[in-house]
Amino acid sequence: MPDTERFDLILIGSGTAAQTFLSNLDDGWMGKRIALIEEREPGGTCALRGCQPKKFLVEVADAVARARMLKGLGVAGDARFDWKAMQRHKNEFLDGIPEETVESLEEDGVEVVRGRAAFVDEDAVAVDGRRLAADHFIVAAGSRPRRLDLTASELVVDSSGFLDLEDLPDEVVFIGGGYIAMEFAHVAARAGAAVTMLIRSGSVLSGFDPDCIDAVVAESREAGIDFRFHTTPEAMSPEGDGILIETGGGETMRAKLVVEAVGRIPNTDRLDAETAGIELDRGGAIVVDDRMRSVSNKRIIALGDIAAAGADLAPVADIQAKTAACHLMGDRTAAMDYRVVPTNAFTIPNLARVGLLEEEAGEKGADVRVSSGPVAGWATSMRIGEKHGFYKVLIDDSTGEILGAHLARHAAAETINLFALAMKQHVRAAEMGDLAWAYPTFSSDIKRMVKDSR
């Protein structure tokens, strides 16, 4: 057995959660021995394989879609998606992130250890023949795409593979109906591919408002996306230059690319987490308390996708990291609160929500006023040629505060943050209606959305 190297703190993973945790440590940690272990390229999923690179694809798709919506309304000619140019632009942004991440960590006195960490005891991990132990572990090793393993073919990719495609084939099948599948389906459709979606359930984008989902689905169909609900693939096999797909209903179809977007798996299995006495939930995520500590091994703090807490979103991971750092430094009042967390899907139109769904508000017995309706007739939608859109705002009848906001329209992903801020600061809907918003803007439509709140 190798000699044990002792550290004050060991972090596993180098993404936004780990970096935010380190940035929130106070001067009392200066001079402490800290190591960060990373198996993949340093920088994390959001920066390298998720949020940031995805937006490069989404922005081009959105620009093409808007130009096409305005064709004949002031825009002449056909907007065209240049896939190779978009990939070059995206890669220019990504180049250097791993090196810059390591440089920043080392400047802060963190020892960066490359390799896979596996727990060998409650307070120790093994990495490429080294045994590292610590009083505290920050486990922020993230998650990876779930794979169906129906065939081994380079024509069947996950979300990371789609992001890195050198060329986009003209026939693409997406398996799944979550936000990743829907976002990339919109990208592929605007880029000119024939897109089919195989969806196990009877709807897409679970967790969002049903009326807003209907608006997105309507626009998706107009963009040429073919939805096959209650359909699951049973077998896939290479055939010529494509993939033959057999569904559970006996249907066969052919595609030149299949994108599996059927959820993500926390990376606890790669860490041998149970060896350290770390309790996992049924999905393999680490069970934590409201301070992000493992409920079964208090040396362990779990953050982000690998923790069984909160939505798997980079901003949530950052707040978890700050909360955990404050608690480690002695602030016993620091605790997580997930009641106001905005989320969105970068579909066309954008889909966004914060707070309670209408059904959830009813289950809680809240006395709710609902302001809702289509937005296609509003000036902000008409001037960009947006035919499908919807909004819904839930207002507490006793306090006038906003309980939930749901949007399906252009710029919904930006507008939802204003609703989140209002909810966090207990701003009443009537107060939002009284504000002299910069006009005419998409956010100034908030005044109209809360019109029934007085």
What does this structure look like?
The chain has helices at 16-23, 44-49, 51-69, 83-94, 97-107, 159-163, 179-190, 210-222, 268-271, 314-328, 358-363, 379-382, 412-424, 429-434, 446-449; strands spanning 4-12, 34-38, 110-114, 118-121, 124-127, 130-139, 143-145, 156-157, 171-175, 194-199, 226-229, 233-239, 242-247, 252-255, 257-260, 264-266, 300-302, 343-345, 350-355, 368-374, 390-396, 402-409. The chain is of the alpha/beta class. The protein has three domains: 4-50 and 89-144 and 265-328, FAD/NAD(P)-binding domain; 156-262, FAD/NAD(P)-binding domain (3-Layer(bba) Sandwich), CATH 3.50.50.60; 349-449, FAD/NAD-linked reductase, C-terminal dimerisation domain (Enolase-like, domain 1, 2-Layer Sandwich). The strands form five sheets. Strands 1, 2, 3, 4, 5, 6 and 17 form a seven-stranded mixed sheet that branches. Strands 8-15-9-10-11 form a five-stranded parallel sheet. The longest helix is centred in the first third of the chain and has 19 residues, at 51-69. The chain is globular. It starts with a strand and ends in a 5-residue tail after the last helix. The relative contact order is 0.12.
